[in-house]
Write the structure tokens for this entry.
Amino acid sequence: MTTESQLRADIVEVGRRMYARGYTASNDGNISARLGDDRLLMTPRSVCKGFMTPDMMCITDLNGKKLQGDLDPSSEMLMHLEVYRQRPDARAVCHAHPPIATGFAVAGIPLDRAVLAEVLTTLGSIPIAEYATPSTSELPEAVRKYVKAHDGMLLANHGALTLGTDVLSAYYKLETIEHFAKISLVARMLGRENLIARDEVDRLQGLRTSYGIKAPAPICPDPTVLGDLLSGPEQMTCQVVRAPEGDGRSRLVADPIVPGQTSAVARATAPDGDEEIRLTYRELSALIEDAIRSLR
Ligand SMILES: [Zn+2]
């Protein structure tokens, strides 16, 4: 059992790291941890998380009633309380606005494509909880749908939320989400994402067990039901991972067209002849070679 002073120190350290890495600006973000069975340690509101001291933390009960502390608890306390209510295994919660991941949340693009093996074996998928006004009871409602099956999620037009078995593990999941978002953004800017095929995703899921990684829920087995699952009001009980069927030869499947980014080849074959096209040198050479061949 972590002592109270250690928990306070961990929250201060994680706040410092979140601010130093640009996951929060000004007084944004909040961190909490379970202090025994019926109390929480919570960061205070209106304080920069990069400059906290251990004595600043509030102690609340599981309904959010302040029991101790000079400052008031975080304005996003309701969201934290909902996580602890839904996930008895959660011992810490982190919320911040990491800019690249939040960019995905603003664009409405969930981080649920089968891109990185490490992410698939740890977090699985990172969905987007519906937009809700920050600090109101709407936000815990939006989070409720996903929190049973996910250790990390994006919050539409707001930020990211993670939970863990201790303060650092919740924080590391925030790092993983931002890192994943960064890599996804670069791949999309390059115009292509090679996705991990479903067979390989199933294999990676098997590794969770052999590595002893505790996942809150399995990957959804049937991709055809995804639409119903995502649009319905029920809590998710599995994780949506978008992975194409492989061709049996390669474990990666090229996916040149990603939302908001059309590949050069797709642009080159666009039906509207007036649109600007951009080609790589190799693509241009191939087109010229084809044209010469057809002239012969
Ligand atoms: Zn926020």
